[in-house]
Amino acid sequence: MKNPIKKIAIILVLIILLPVFFFSLYEINTLNESEKVIEQTYNNQLDAIFFSVNQFSEDVVTSWRSKLNILLDEEVSTPDNFTKKADSLLKINNYIVSVFFANSLNPKSTFSLQADSSYNIKTFLSSNSHKIKKLYTYERAGYNKIEPVTTKDGKTILIFLLEDPFRVKNICVTVIDPQKFVNNILGARLKEIAGEEFIITCQAVGTTLPEVSSKDVIFSTEEFQDRQISQKRNLWLIPDYELGLLLKGGTIETLVKERATTNIIFISLLTLILIVGVIIVFRNIRKEMELARIKSDFVSNVSHELRTPLSLISMFAETLEMDRVKTEEKKKEYYLIISKEAGRLSRIVNKILSFSKIEAGKRDYRFSKININNLVEDIFKTYQFHLQNNNFKFSFEYDSSIPEIDADPEAVSEAIINLLENAIKYSVDRKEIMIITGKEGNSVYVEISDKGIGITEESQKKIFDKFYRVSDGLVHNTKGTGLGLTLVKYIMDAHHGEIKVKSKLNEGSSFKLVFSTNNFLKGK
Length: 524
Hints:
By secondary structure, the protein is of the alpha+beta class. It has helices spanning 4-29, 33-77, 79-92, 121-127, 129-140, 178-194, 252-285, 289-321, 328-352, 355-359, 372-389, 409-425, 457-460, 473-477, 484-494; strands spanning 96-103, 106-113, 147-150, 156-163, 169-176, 198-204, 217-220, 231-234, 241-247, 368-370, 393-397, 405-407, 432-440, 443-450, 498-504, 508-516.
């Protein structure tokens, strides 16, 4: 043999490394720093616009509050002119439905302007006492806060404090029509901000108004047809409405897609070059394929082993990060699961270092007396949240009378989880998974059943072979390494156990792990 490694190295440099080098050079010269700057500038500009609109709406209400304060002074000093000036002020601000005043010294003492009989101001003040307390807290800190409250009929109530000439704090409750406020007050401002560059919309979000459905657009500076609005922010004073903003021309997403298209074209060209190169050097690297296969097997095994704990850690961490867990007890439970999976992940990494021993049957197991029910129950609790979120019917039926067995709890857990993961992956139309524990003579078993796609009789003879994967159907299209059932077989052999499979195509599969109750592992 004439040093094929050197020949392969030269060819790879010419047909693979050089194209990769030139492609990388191209990418370096066309770094998307400018796109990042544009995107950052774009996002900053959007935030500034949203802030400006919200600040403007607060300025409008603050101006209204100042006028009410003047009216309140009029009511105390010259009550004869109060009603006339109040009516004039309400006509100008036609988005205001009703205004109620309550004396802080005696909240039951109230009077109103243009009162709507459908609002019971005393009941409202009583049910929102916590918000009123917050207003006093803010006021003592020197901040005149405005608290919004959404009503069942779709109106918005603004609560703030006013002070009369005798320095008595008065609670002012202003009922406004959000749609009129947006169209009559904010509309002109939104058009001014939008200019020739943006389209600004306002949508109802979850409003109870019968004539306005959720996400209906009640205002838009221009028609935007069916374009997706990606930038949205809630209005501070009208929480049930949100502003949307998009560019009239292309978006930053369009720029990114164009760059991605360019990259795909170059990657495709590079792939063609690599394919041609592979064809040219195929005969020279045939003997090297075995080494490449071993490396590929190793990477595949790493991916398979790490996927389960990583997915669980990611799922529960994301749930906690998005603040979906409201009780401290649940949070503690999720933190415990993350901690347990992180520990298991560390152990898996250590196992990977001795994978060659596993294949040779030299893996060290730590046997102890375990209750298989407790082991399965822990797995059931860990996966219950994930399965429920994916619309699975998941049940666990156990025989409380089964005896303890000598086994490695970590290895048995790994075997059960591998079977459970397979049941999840290959259940499409009927998402039903059942775990059953029981005893048969001198044996204890764990059975994992699903209603998934099933396995043909021919494939059942090969599924425990290393790297074997069914060559057609969903099994072929679903990602996997072909190592899962092989690892289960290794574990059961080490436990002098047995794995049984029953399956029928398109009806489901059942895998049973059978453990002997004899103390055959004593002394190991």
